[in-house]
Design a protein that fits this description.
403 residues; mainly alpha; two-stranded antiparallel ribbon; 15 helices
Protein backbone atom coordinates (compact mmCIF):
# COMPACT_ATOMS: atom_id res chain seq x y z
CA UNK A 1 0.00 0.00 0.00
CA UNK A 2 1.43 3.44 -0.94
CA UNK A 3 2.74 5.54 1.90
CA UNK A 4 1.82 9.19 2.32
CA UNK A 5 4.31 11.79 3.42
CA UNK A 6 3.55 14.99 5.30
CA UNK A 7 2.73 16.85 2.12
CA UNK A 8 0.00 14.41 1.18
CA UNK A 9 1.97 13.01 -1.77
CA UNK A 10 1.70 9.31 -2.43
CA UNK A 11 5.20 7.87 -2.06
CA UNK A 12 4.17 4.72 -3.90
CA UNK A 13 4.13 6.69 -7.11
CA UNK A 14 7.90 7.06 -6.92
CA UNK A 15 8.11 3.75 -8.72
CA UNK A 16 5.60 4.75 -11.39
CA UNK A 17 6.47 5.78 -14.93
CA UNK A 18 8.52 8.97 -14.98
CA UNK A 19 7.97 11.16 -18.01
CA UNK A 20 10.10 14.03 -16.73
CA UNK A 21 13.88 13.77 -16.71
CA UNK A 22 16.10 14.92 -13.88
CA UNK A 23 17.23 17.81 -16.08
CA UNK A 24 13.63 18.91 -16.60
CA UNK A 25 12.83 18.73 -12.90
CA UNK A 26 15.90 20.82 -12.14
CA UNK A 27 14.77 23.30 -14.77
CA UNK A 28 11.38 23.61 -13.10
CA UNK A 29 13.14 24.39 -9.81
CA UNK A 30 14.74 27.43 -11.48
CA UNK A 31 11.68 28.50 -13.47
CA UNK A 32 10.44 32.09 -13.28
CA UNK A 33 7.04 33.02 -14.70
CA UNK A 34 7.13 35.73 -17.38
CA UNK A 35 3.95 36.78 -19.12
CA UNK A 36 2.67 39.85 -20.98
CA UNK A 37 -1.05 40.45 -21.51
CA UNK A 38 -1.84 43.61 -23.49
CA UNK A 39 -5.44 42.79 -24.38
CA UNK A 40 -7.77 45.70 -23.53
CA UNK A 41 -10.55 43.21 -22.78
CA UNK A 42 -8.36 41.44 -20.25
CA UNK A 43 -6.93 44.61 -18.75
CA UNK A 44 -10.09 46.69 -18.37
CA UNK A 45 -12.84 44.07 -18.11
CA UNK A 46 -11.78 40.56 -17.16
CA UNK A 47 -8.97 41.20 -14.68
CA UNK A 48 -10.99 43.69 -12.59
CA UNK A 49 -13.84 41.16 -12.53
CA UNK A 50 -11.53 38.31 -11.57
CA UNK A 51 -9.86 40.45 -8.87
CA UNK A 52 -13.26 40.93 -7.25
CA UNK A 53 -14.27 37.31 -7.71
CA UNK A 54 -11.16 35.79 -6.16
CA UNK A 55 -11.80 37.71 -2.92
CA UNK A 56 -14.93 35.66 -2.21
CA UNK A 57 -13.24 32.30 -2.77
CA UNK A 58 -12.38 30.25 0.34
CA UNK A 59 -8.71 30.14 1.29
CA UNK A 60 -8.70 26.33 1.28
CA UNK A 61 -9.69 26.12 -2.41
CA UNK A 62 -6.67 24.85 -4.34
CA UNK A 63 -5.92 26.68 -7.61
CA UNK A 64 -5.34 23.43 -9.51
CA UNK A 65 -8.74 22.20 -8.37
CA UNK A 66 -10.25 25.36 -9.87
CA UNK A 67 -8.36 24.77 -13.11
CA UNK A 68 -9.47 21.16 -13.35
CA UNK A 69 -13.08 21.97 -12.46
CA UNK A 70 -13.25 24.61 -15.19
CA UNK A 71 -11.83 22.19 -17.75
CA UNK A 72 -14.28 19.47 -16.74
CA UNK A 73 -17.16 21.87 -17.36
CA UNK A 74 -16.02 22.07 -20.99
CA UNK A 75 -15.83 18.27 -21.12
CA UNK A 76 -19.40 18.04 -19.79
CA UNK A 77 -20.49 20.46 -22.52
CA UNK A 78 -18.84 18.22 -25.10
CA UNK A 79 -20.54 15.02 -23.94
CA UNK A 80 -23.89 16.75 -23.47
CA UNK A 81 -23.83 18.09 -27.03
CA UNK A 82 -22.54 14.72 -28.27
CA UNK A 83 -25.65 13.10 -26.82
CA UNK A 84 -28.06 15.52 -28.52
CA UNK A 85 -26.08 16.34 -31.65
CA UNK A 86 -23.44 13.70 -32.32
CA UNK A 87 -23.15 14.29 -36.07
CA UNK A 88 -23.95 18.05 -36.14
CA UNK A 89 -27.32 17.79 -37.89
CA UNK A 90 -29.49 18.92 -34.94
CA UNK A 91 -29.57 22.55 -36.08
CA UNK A 92 -30.85 21.54 -39.54
CA UNK A 93 -34.54 21.69 -40.47
CA UNK A 94 -33.99 19.35 -43.43
CA UNK A 95 -33.11 16.42 -41.16
CA UNK A 96 -36.22 15.99 -38.97
CA UNK A 97 -34.88 12.67 -37.64
CA UNK A 98 -32.34 14.73 -35.71
CA UNK A 99 -34.35 16.96 -33.36
CA UNK A 100 -32.91 20.30 -32.23
CA UNK A 101 -30.74 20.49 -29.14
CA UNK A 102 -33.03 21.32 -26.17
CA UNK A 103 -32.86 24.98 -25.20
CA UNK A 104 -31.88 24.22 -21.62
CA UNK A 105 -28.66 22.70 -22.95
CA UNK A 106 -27.61 26.06 -24.39
CA UNK A 107 -28.30 27.77 -21.06
CA UNK A 108 -26.14 25.15 -19.35
CA UNK A 109 -23.41 25.65 -21.95
CA UNK A 110 -23.48 29.41 -21.41
CA UNK A 111 -23.24 28.99 -17.64
CA UNK A 112 -20.50 26.34 -17.76
CA UNK A 113 -18.46 28.21 -20.38
CA UNK A 114 -18.60 31.45 -18.38
CA UNK A 115 -17.76 29.64 -15.14
CA UNK A 116 -14.89 27.76 -16.81
CA UNK A 117 -13.51 31.04 -18.14
CA UNK A 118 -13.83 32.62 -14.70
CA UNK A 119 -12.10 29.73 -12.95
CA UNK A 120 -9.33 29.81 -15.54
CA UNK A 121 -8.86 33.52 -14.94
CA UNK A 122 -8.94 33.26 -11.15
CA UNK A 123 -6.76 30.20 -10.54
CA UNK A 124 -3.48 32.10 -10.78
CA UNK A 125 -4.81 34.90 -8.60
CA UNK A 126 -5.96 32.35 -6.04
CA UNK A 127 -2.49 30.77 -6.08
CA UNK A 128 -0.83 34.10 -5.31
CA UNK A 129 -3.50 34.92 -2.71
CA UNK A 130 -2.93 31.63 -0.86
CA UNK A 131 0.84 31.63 -1.46
CA UNK A 132 0.59 28.29 -3.23
CA UNK A 133 2.04 29.25 -6.62
CA UNK A 134 4.22 26.61 -8.25
CA UNK A 135 5.46 25.62 -11.72
CA UNK A 136 3.01 22.74 -11.54
CA UNK A 137 0.13 25.21 -11.50
CA UNK A 138 1.19 26.86 -14.74
CA UNK A 139 1.93 23.55 -16.45
CA UNK A 140 -1.41 22.13 -15.32
CA UNK A 141 -3.30 25.24 -16.44
CA UNK A 142 -1.73 25.54 -19.88
CA UNK A 143 -1.74 21.80 -20.43
CA UNK A 144 -5.50 21.62 -19.97
CA UNK A 145 -5.90 24.77 -22.07
CA UNK A 146 -4.17 22.96 -24.94
CA UNK A 147 -6.90 20.31 -24.88
CA UNK A 148 -9.60 22.98 -24.53
CA UNK A 149 -8.62 24.33 -27.96
CA UNK A 150 -10.67 21.42 -29.28
CA UNK A 151 -13.56 21.44 -26.79
CA UNK A 152 -14.38 25.13 -27.30
CA UNK A 153 -14.82 25.31 -31.10
CA UNK A 154 -16.48 21.89 -31.34
CA UNK A 155 -19.27 23.07 -29.04
CA UNK A 156 -19.85 26.12 -31.24
CA UNK A 157 -20.24 23.85 -34.28
CA UNK A 158 -23.50 22.48 -32.85
CA UNK A 159 -24.97 26.00 -32.91
CA UNK A 160 -25.02 26.20 -36.71
CA UNK A 161 -24.15 22.66 -37.78
CA UNK A 162 -23.18 21.22 -41.13
CA UNK A 163 -26.39 21.79 -43.15
CA UNK A 164 -28.97 24.55 -43.77
CA UNK A 165 -26.55 27.48 -44.00
CA UNK A 166 -24.00 25.66 -41.87
CA UNK A 167 -20.51 24.63 -42.94
CA UNK A 168 -19.07 21.29 -43.98
CA UNK A 169 -16.98 19.29 -41.50
CA UNK A 170 -13.83 19.89 -43.56
CA UNK A 171 -14.26 23.65 -43.17
CA UNK A 172 -14.77 23.16 -39.42
CA UNK A 173 -11.63 21.04 -39.42
CA UNK A 174 -9.56 24.01 -40.57
CA UNK A 175 -11.26 26.33 -38.06
CA UNK A 176 -10.22 24.02 -35.23
CA UNK A 177 -6.70 23.88 -36.59
CA UNK A 178 -6.58 27.69 -36.73
CA UNK A 179 -7.39 27.88 -33.03
CA UNK A 180 -4.79 25.25 -32.23
CA UNK A 181 -2.09 26.87 -34.35
CA UNK A 182 -2.48 30.14 -32.46
CA UNK A 183 -2.25 28.34 -29.12
CA UNK A 184 0.88 26.35 -29.89
CA UNK A 185 2.45 29.38 -31.58
CA UNK A 186 2.24 31.33 -28.32
CA UNK A 187 4.16 28.58 -26.47
CA UNK A 188 6.61 28.15 -29.33
CA UNK A 189 7.14 31.90 -29.06
CA UNK A 190 7.84 31.57 -25.33
CA UNK A 191 10.23 28.69 -26.01
CA UNK A 192 12.26 31.15 -28.11
CA UNK A 193 11.74 34.48 -26.32
CA UNK A 194 11.31 33.26 -22.69
CA UNK A 195 8.15 35.40 -22.44
CA UNK A 196 4.54 34.27 -22.87
CA UNK A 197 2.60 36.86 -24.88
CA UNK A 198 -1.07 36.07 -24.35
CA UNK A 199 -3.18 36.21 -27.54
CA UNK A 200 -5.85 38.88 -27.60
CA UNK A 201 -8.44 36.53 -29.01
CA UNK A 202 -8.76 34.25 -25.98
CA UNK A 203 -10.92 36.41 -23.70
CA UNK A 204 -12.86 37.86 -26.64
CA UNK A 205 -13.71 34.41 -27.96
CA UNK A 206 -14.72 33.13 -24.53
CA UNK A 207 -17.11 36.02 -23.97
CA UNK A 208 -18.45 35.66 -27.52
CA UNK A 209 -19.14 31.95 -26.98
CA UNK A 210 -21.09 32.65 -23.81
CA UNK A 211 -23.16 35.31 -25.60
CA UNK A 212 -23.84 32.98 -28.55
CA UNK A 213 -25.06 30.24 -26.19
CA UNK A 214 -27.35 32.69 -24.38
CA UNK A 215 -28.83 34.00 -27.63
CA UNK A 216 -29.39 30.43 -28.80
CA UNK A 217 -31.19 29.69 -25.53
CA UNK A 218 -33.50 32.70 -25.84
CA UNK A 219 -33.99 32.80 -29.62
CA UNK A 220 -33.28 29.25 -30.75
CA UNK A 221 -30.79 27.91 -33.29
CA UNK A 222 -32.79 29.35 -36.20
CA UNK A 223 -31.67 32.82 -35.14
CA UNK A 224 -28.29 32.03 -36.69
CA UNK A 225 -29.74 30.85 -40.01
CA UNK A 226 -29.56 34.26 -41.69
CA UNK A 227 -28.32 35.01 -45.17
CA UNK A 228 -27.36 38.31 -46.75
CA UNK A 229 -26.28 38.82 -50.35
CA UNK A 230 -23.62 41.49 -50.76
CA UNK A 231 -22.82 41.40 -54.44
CA UNK A 232 -21.18 38.07 -55.20
CA UNK A 233 -20.66 37.30 -51.51
CA UNK A 234 -23.25 35.41 -49.47
CA UNK A 235 -22.94 36.29 -45.78
CA UNK A 236 -23.91 33.63 -43.22
CA UNK A 237 -23.14 33.26 -39.53
CA UNK A 238 -20.63 30.39 -40.04
CA UNK A 239 -18.86 32.49 -42.67
CA UNK A 240 -18.53 35.32 -40.15
CA UNK A 241 -17.05 32.83 -37.69
CA UNK A 242 -14.56 31.64 -40.29
CA UNK A 243 -13.52 35.14 -41.28
CA UNK A 244 -13.14 36.16 -37.63
CA UNK A 245 -11.01 33.12 -36.80
CA UNK A 246 -8.74 33.45 -39.80
CA UNK A 247 -8.42 37.22 -39.46
CA UNK A 248 -7.88 37.58 -35.74
CA UNK A 249 -6.37 34.20 -34.88
CA UNK A 250 -4.11 33.55 -37.82
CA UNK A 251 -3.72 37.02 -39.32
CA UNK A 252 -3.11 39.11 -36.21
CA UNK A 253 -1.85 36.61 -33.64
CA UNK A 254 0.66 34.82 -35.86
CA UNK A 255 1.95 38.13 -37.20
CA UNK A 256 2.47 39.34 -33.64
CA UNK A 257 4.24 36.10 -32.78
CA UNK A 258 6.81 36.54 -35.54
CA UNK A 259 7.30 40.19 -34.55
CA UNK A 260 7.98 39.25 -30.92
CA UNK A 261 10.47 36.60 -32.01
CA UNK A 262 12.21 39.09 -34.30
CA UNK A 263 12.39 41.63 -31.46
CA UNK A 264 13.89 39.05 -29.09
CA UNK A 265 16.72 38.38 -31.56
CA UNK A 266 17.21 42.05 -32.32
CA UNK A 267 17.37 43.00 -28.63
CA UNK A 268 19.10 39.73 -27.64
CA UNK A 269 16.58 39.11 -24.87
CA UNK A 270 15.57 35.58 -25.87
CA UNK A 271 17.42 32.28 -25.93
CA UNK A 272 19.16 33.15 -29.22
CA UNK A 273 18.56 29.67 -30.58
CA UNK A 274 19.86 28.45 -33.91
CA UNK A 275 17.38 28.11 -36.82
CA UNK A 276 17.36 24.34 -36.31
CA UNK A 277 16.50 24.68 -32.61
CA UNK A 278 13.81 27.23 -33.44
CA UNK A 279 12.07 25.02 -35.99
CA UNK A 280 12.46 21.68 -34.18
CA UNK A 281 9.42 22.12 -31.86
CA UNK A 282 7.19 22.57 -34.93
CA UNK A 283 8.01 19.18 -36.46
CA UNK A 284 5.52 17.06 -34.45
CA UNK A 285 2.56 19.41 -34.95
CA UNK A 286 3.41 19.78 -38.65
CA UNK A 287 3.45 15.99 -38.99
CA UNK A 288 0.09 15.78 -37.21
CA UNK A 289 -1.45 18.41 -39.47
CA UNK A 290 -0.09 16.73 -42.60
CA UNK A 291 -1.26 13.23 -41.67
CA UNK A 292 -4.73 14.29 -40.54
CA UNK A 293 -5.27 16.59 -43.51
CA UNK A 294 -4.36 13.80 -45.92
CA UNK A 295 -6.78 11.48 -44.13
CA UNK A 296 -9.54 14.12 -44.15
CA UNK A 297 -9.13 15.16 -47.78
CA UNK A 298 -8.52 11.75 -49.35
CA UNK A 299 -11.28 9.85 -47.56
CA UNK A 300 -14.76 10.41 -46.14
CA UNK A 301 -13.66 10.10 -42.50
CA UNK A 302 -14.33 13.74 -41.63
CA UNK A 303 -17.86 13.55 -43.10
CA UNK A 304 -18.67 10.14 -41.64
CA UNK A 305 -17.24 10.68 -38.13
CA UNK A 306 -16.43 14.37 -37.64
CA UNK A 307 -16.80 14.43 -33.86
CA UNK A 308 -14.52 11.46 -33.22
CA UNK A 309 -12.01 12.60 -35.85
CA UNK A 310 -11.82 16.07 -34.31
CA UNK A 311 -11.43 14.51 -30.85
CA UNK A 312 -8.50 12.43 -32.09
CA UNK A 313 -6.75 15.49 -33.50
CA UNK A 314 -7.40 17.59 -30.39
CA UNK A 315 -5.99 14.90 -28.11
CA UNK A 316 -2.76 14.29 -30.03
CA UNK A 317 -2.33 18.05 -30.44
CA UNK A 318 -2.67 18.53 -26.69
CA UNK A 319 -0.01 15.91 -25.98
CA UNK A 320 2.39 17.54 -28.42
CA UNK A 321 1.75 20.96 -26.91
CA UNK A 322 2.10 19.75 -23.32
CA UNK A 323 5.56 18.40 -24.10
CA UNK A 324 6.53 21.73 -25.66
CA UNK A 325 5.27 23.55 -22.55
CA UNK A 326 7.40 21.26 -20.38
CA UNK A 327 10.46 22.09 -22.50
CA UNK A 328 9.93 25.85 -22.48
CA UNK A 329 9.27 25.94 -18.72
CA UNK A 330 12.17 23.64 -17.85
CA UNK A 331 14.54 25.37 -20.27
CA UNK A 332 15.38 22.09 -22.00
CA UNK A 333 15.49 21.13 -25.68
CA UNK A 334 12.06 20.53 -27.20
CA UNK A 335 11.22 17.07 -28.45
CA UNK A 336 11.45 16.73 -32.22
CA UNK A 337 9.08 13.76 -32.23
CA UNK A 338 5.96 12.47 -30.46
CA UNK A 339 5.26 8.76 -30.17
CA UNK A 340 1.50 9.25 -30.51
CA UNK A 341 2.21 10.05 -34.16
CA UNK A 342 3.39 6.48 -34.80
CA UNK A 343 -0.09 4.89 -34.88
CA UNK A 344 -1.21 7.70 -37.18
CA UNK A 345 1.72 7.08 -39.51
CA UNK A 346 0.66 3.44 -39.69
CA UNK A 347 -3.08 4.08 -39.89
CA UNK A 348 -3.38 6.87 -42.45
CA UNK A 349 -1.50 5.21 -45.36
CA UNK A 350 -3.17 1.89 -44.52
CA UNK A 351 -6.76 3.12 -44.72
CA UNK A 352 -6.00 5.24 -47.78
CA UNK A 353 -4.06 2.64 -49.78
CA UNK A 354 -5.29 -0.78 -48.67
CA UNK A 355 -8.78 -1.32 -50.08
CA UNK A 356 -10.08 -3.86 -47.49
CA UNK A 357 -9.17 -1.50 -44.65
CA UNK A 358 -11.29 1.33 -46.06
CA UNK A 359 -14.41 -0.53 -44.97
CA UNK A 360 -12.95 -0.71 -41.45
CA UNK A 361 -12.09 2.98 -41.29
CA UNK A 362 -14.67 3.85 -38.63
CA UNK A 363 -13.78 1.11 -36.11
CA UNK A 364 -10.09 1.81 -36.72
CA UNK A 365 -10.72 5.50 -35.96
CA UNK A 366 -12.52 4.62 -32.71
CA UNK A 367 -9.76 2.27 -31.58
CA UNK A 368 -7.07 4.80 -32.45
CA UNK A 369 -8.90 7.62 -30.65
CA UNK A 370 -9.40 5.48 -27.54
CA UNK A 371 -5.73 4.49 -27.51
CA UNK A 372 -4.28 8.01 -27.86
CA UNK A 373 -6.77 9.37 -25.30
CA UNK A 374 -5.73 6.80 -22.70
CA UNK A 375 -2.06 7.50 -23.45
CA UNK A 376 -2.57 11.25 -23.12
CA UNK A 377 -4.48 10.93 -19.85
CA UNK A 378 -1.78 8.61 -18.54
CA UNK A 379 0.87 11.16 -19.50
CA UNK A 380 -1.01 13.98 -17.78
CA UNK A 381 -1.67 12.07 -14.57
CA UNK A 382 1.89 10.87 -14.12
CA UNK A 383 3.51 14.18 -15.04
CA UNK A 384 1.37 15.88 -12.39
CA UNK A 385 2.19 13.19 -9.83
CA UNK A 386 5.90 13.33 -10.61
CA UNK A 387 6.03 17.11 -10.30
CA UNK A 388 3.94 17.12 -7.12
CA UNK A 389 6.26 14.55 -5.58
CA UNK A 390 9.33 16.51 -6.64
CA UNK A 391 7.96 19.80 -5.28
CA UNK A 392 6.63 18.21 -2.10
CA UNK A 393 3.07 19.43 -2.65
CA UNK A 394 -0.39 18.01 -3.21
CA UNK A 395 -1.75 18.94 -6.64
CA UNK A 396 -5.31 19.44 -5.41
CA UNK A 397 -4.91 20.58 -1.83
CA UNK A 398 -3.22 23.56 -0.26
CA UNK A 399 -0.66 22.45 2.26
CA UNK A 400 -1.36 23.87 5.69
CA UNK A 401 1.54 26.01 6.83
CA UNK A 402 3.02 25.39 10.27
CA UNK A 403 2.03 28.05 12.79
Amino acid sequence: MPLIDGSGVYQGFKMAIKYLSAEQLEGFDNYKYSCIDTSPVSKYLMHPFWNLTVKILPQWLAPNLMTFSGFMLLVVNFFLLSFYDFDFYASSETFPARPPVPKWVWLFCAFSNFLAHTLDGCDGKQARRTQSSSPLGELFDHGLDSWATFFLPIALYSVYGRADLGITPIRMYFIIWSVQIVFIASHWEKYITKVLFLPWGYDISQLALTVVYLITFFRGHLFWKFLYDIGPIVITFPLLVEVSVYTFSIGLSIGQTFWNIYKSYKDETGKMLSPYEVLMPLLPVTALFTLCTLWAVLSDVVDAQPRVFFFLIGTVFSNITCRLIVAQMAGTRAEFWNWLLVPLIVTVPSVLCIAPLKAWQTPILYVLTTMVTLCHIHYGIFVVRQMALHLGIDAFRIKQKDT
